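chain below, 127 aa
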Amino acid sequence: MRRTHETQAESFLPLTSVVFEILVTLARGDHHGYSILAEVRERTGELVRAGSLYRAIGRLLEDGLVDELDERPDPEIDDERRRYYRLTEFGRRVAGAEAARLETQVRHARAAKLLVKRRRITSPRLG
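prediction:
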């Protein structure tokens, strides 16, 4: 069931890490499924399974966070089987709400001294 723009972004929270990473990828621009998968894997270092990624994209489409594009790149550089996706404005709001939620959690973890600030290592100056 596609939710309308009146739906509160917070009603989707918390997002799974795979869903959040898909939204972050699409916030940077339109992508086809495999390029989303590749970028998520590269950014997270995790082996995200293609099946779980495509199921998540299907749910994002149903919920109105992502749209499938009708426009196609030049056929000479594209594979006709690819499906291209774009983040909707509502999807951007949901991703922003999740980012804010995560930022708050990190701030609380730092306050509880669960995270240590990384020290910058500087090399000695040669003189």
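DSSP finds four helices and three strands in the chain. The longest strand covers residues 84-87.
thats it, cya
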